[in-house]
Amino acid sequence: MARLAGGLVGPAVGLGALAVARGPGRFTTYAGSSSLAATLTVAAGLALVAAGLVTSFSRPAGRIGDLAVLAGLVWFAPVWVGWDKGPPMVRSLGLIAGGFTFPLLLHLVLAYPSGRLRGVVARTLVSVVYLGAVLTALGRALVRDPFFDPDCWANCTDNVFLLHSLPRLAHGIEVGDRWFTAAAAVALVAVCAWRLLRDSGPARRALLPVALPAILLAAAVTARAITLARVSLEDPSEPAFGWSFVIECTAVILLAAGLVWATIRMRVQRLAVARIITSLGQAPPPGSLQAAIARAVGDPELKIVYWLPDSQRHVDANGRLAAAPIAAPGRAVTVLVRDDRRIAVVSHTAALPDLEREIGAAGRLALENERLQAEALAQLEQLRASRVRIVETGDAERRRLERNLHDGAQQQLLALSYDIRLARTAAQADGDAPTGSLLTRAVDQALVVLGELRALAHGIYPAILAEAGLSAALVTLAEGAPLPVEIHAAVERRYPEGVETAAYLLVAEALDDAARRDASHTTVSVVGDGGRLVVTVDDDGRDRTAAMVQLADRVGAADGRLTVEPTRLRAELPCA
Amino acid sequence: MRVVVADDVMLTRQGIVRLLREAGVEVVAEAEDAAGLLREVRLAHPDVALVDIRMPPTHTDEGLVAAQTIRADYPQVGVLVLSQYVEPSYAMRLIQEYPERVGYLLKDRVFDIATVVDALRRIGDGETVIDPTIVSRLVRRRRREDPLATLSDREQQVLGLIAEGMSNRAIAARLYVTERTVEAHVTQIFQKLHLPESADQHRRVLAVLAFLRA
Fold first, then answer.
1. Which pLDDT score is estimated for A180?
2. Looking at the complex, does the CB of residue A406 fall below 8 Å from at least one CB of chain B?
């Protein structure tokens, strides 16, 4: 309602001001000095009001629009001050209000685009400027009698609030306000320039339409302050004053246009986001949502991570662990919530003040879907990692067992047998034939056990595989195989331990399987092909019925692929 | 015959040493790792070093590496590698570079101490010794179109003894035939298998082993 009222009051105040400027304010206002000045004055004020209404109605979250409307109304204050023979109250109020135009515009520029002041510098600057404006307004109202002001021009008669005339103090306040405003303008330029330099890409592009007019405005304000220092009497017909006024009006019009442009751009973007999200379809591949939103809002660095409440961590769309985004200069972070639950955290350009609205309900639904997908993928990844761990632990255990057998049981048995052998010699020397033959049998049995232990250890893990690699181990395997094995294109280089073990066990299992299916011979081919090792075992046995699940598990754990055909096994093992 | 014995497992080493001494072999030093072995070889200059294939620190192929170092640095010192692996790859690797005065025997072979003493003597004479278990594994290997099928039983027997590193004279003694008969068998075998006949005893062992592994 207040906004609507502001919207109605705006044109009225503007048209009234125009009437004043063309009539009783002809010599006491800038607007009265020429028809160009009058047009610019009215256009600038109304542009601010209009831009404010457009902005505030399409973006209620921001206070930008309200600030613009207010600044637009206050903008006309100098004209009302110059209403010659007008109501003293109006002229006195105009004098007080006029001092707030620049503070309001400064606040607007610094609060753009979110409506909130970000950073200590901006907050301090805005507070100090408002405080200065309030003190100046109080001083002007209470101690300045325009009648005793030698530099007065727009209004030399009326101040209904005057408490006690103190001409020297009043003059000091005017001079102080002049330099204070100039300093604030310089500070505004500095902040705008710093923001433009700091930000890049979409953030800077969004800042430009507001920051550039603001710099122009600040320049005009500073120029007027400097001119006033030289020529203490303000006179619109003086070219220096006239030009700085024209520039000021132009800057305000551009600023209003920039606000409108940003608002329209935001709406277009929102429509684009909605359209793109709808066009993604039922089950978009992981990550396409991020790419689509990034494209729609024109921020290629936009990142979406999803929150998994069960495992209390953030993941990307592929379910991989991701760091929680943090805000940085020019980058903002928005937490997206649906039904009171956190779905996603988005890191995006600070030029997008209201990402939640940009994405909309449809977007949130799409994000929730992708979050569920990411959760499933994360669980899949966990399972995969756990399978890899199981296989790796199993392999490590195999090697440990083989080593333990070799260094433990086998050595102990050997040593024991050597002793029995010595005992037999002693018994034979003593002529104890029965004991001698008993010990001979014991040695023979020990030999059998040693042979079995050796075969067992080799079956658990062939030491040659770790020491000499896949080729050598496969040759040994073929030598002991129950059927003829031809080995082709054996690779000479070494591969990661897991890959070699998987390939070796695959061939070993395939040879056993071929023998079970009465094959008369097998052909093994091992080919190193770029980043992968391809192992193929062909035989001429009966058709295979077993699914070779254990092999599939092992190959899968190595991130490879196993193809099971009736008389052929083929595994692709990545080994990057 | 003066030997050095290297094995990291004390029980096994002591067993081997006692069996060797009982058989009349002079054990001049013992070592428990490759570094100790090389030190003892340098100090004692034995005829042959008996080396365990797997020793500290990595327990992989220290024995083979030490064997090659000894063969390279002390040409007069023979090396007999003792192993628990029926693994032709290791035997091949051992004899590839220095086929003279080296041998590869399974540790069980020590029970039959006469075989070990015979191997030590052959190595001392400059021959090559390969464990019969390994050779028979290679000969018995299943082949699709088995070229060994063209050999007579006696020829197969001779082939295996060649692979074990035996000289014609030793084969003749083993089979109770004349050396000339053995020579005739060898010529037949090499022709049937299309192997180039070599006068060099050691090259002959390598060629036959490589053929059997192919």
1. 93
2. yes
| Residue of A400, A418, A524 for testing the chain B interface, max B β-carbons within 10 Å | A418
| C-alpha–C-alpha distance, residues A317 and A488, integer Å | 43
Interval A398-453: pLDDT, tens: 999 998 998 889 989 999 998 998 899 899 889 989 999 999 999 999 999 999 99
User: Is the pLDDT confidence value at A61 over 80?
Assistant: no
Closest to B2 measured CA to CA, from B20, B21, B27: B27
For residue A496, say if its preceding peptide bond is cis, omega within 30 degrees of 0: no
Strand partners of residue A335: A345
Q: What value does the mean pLDDT take over residues A371-384?
A: 89
The pLDDT of residue A427: 92
- Judge: A478–B12 Cβ closer than 8 Å, yes or no: no
Can you read off the two tokens belonging to residue A162?
A: 């005057």
pLDDT for A113 equals: 79
Residues of B within 8 A of A520 (CB-CB) are 144
Residues of chain B contacting residue A421, judged by C-beta atoms under 8 Å apart: 19, 111, 113
Q: What are the φ/ψ torsions at residue B78 (nearest 5 degrees)? A: -85, 165
In A, minimum Cα distance to B9 occurs at A411
Residue B71 has pLDDT above 90, yes or no: yes
Place of tokens 């030399």: A156
Q: How far is CA A516 from the centre of its chain?
A: 58
Q: Do B11 and A411 touch (CB under 8 A)?
A: yes
Distance from CA of B178 to the nearest CA of A (A): 33
Residue closest to A19 by CA, chosen among A70, A84, A73, A68: A84
Q: Which ipTM did the prediction report?
A: 0.89
Instruction: Report residue B17's pLDDT band, with 50, 70 and 90 as the boundaries.
Output: very high
CB contact under 8 A, B85 and A466: no
- Are the beta carbons of A468 and B60 separated by less than 8 Å? no
Nearest to A480 among B85, B89, B137 (CB): B137
Q: Is A418 on the interface with B (CB under 8 A)?
A: yes
Q: What is the pLDDT of residues A329-369, one digit of tens each?
A: 778 888 888 888 888 898 888 777 677 777 777 778 888 88
Predicted confidence (pLDDT) per residue in A248-296, tens digit? 999 999 999 999 998 888 788 778 777 777 777 666 788 888 888 888 7
Residues of B in contact with A450 (CB under 8 A): 108
CA distance A71 to A67: 6
User: Within an 8 Å CB–CB cutoff, is residue A412 touching chain B?
Assistant: yes
Between CA B112 and CA B110 the distance in angstroms is 5
pTM of the model: 0.62
Listed in sequence order, the residues at least 6 apart from B120 whose beta carbon sits closer than 8 Å to its beta carbon are B1, B3, B25, B47, B48, B50, B78, B80
Calpha distance A328→A348 (Å, rounded): 10
Nearest to A418 among B15, B84, B86 (CB): B15
- Contacts of B60-66 with CB under 8 Å at 24 or more apart are B60/A463, B60/A466, B60/A467, B61/A467, B61/B90, B62/B33, B62/B34, B63/B6, B63/B34, B64/B90, B64/B93, B64/B94, B65/B34, B66/B6, B66/B34, B66/B37, B66/B38
| Contact: A422, B18; criterion CB under 8 Å | yes
Q: How far, CA to CA in Å, does B140 sit from each of A433, A449, B159?
A: 37, 22, 12
- Collect all residues of chain B within an 8 Å Cβ-Cβ radius of residue A412: 11
The confidence band for A489, taking pLDDT boundaries of 50, 70 and 90, is low
Give the residue among A73, A128, A77, A139 at the shortest CA–CA distance from A103.
A128
A528 CA to chain B: closest CA distance, Å? 21
Give the model's pLDDT for residue B103: 94
Nearest to A394 by CA among A281, A164, A553, A266: A553
Within 8 A of A403 by CB-CB distance, chain B residues are 59
- A479 part of contact set with chain B, CB < 8 Å: yes
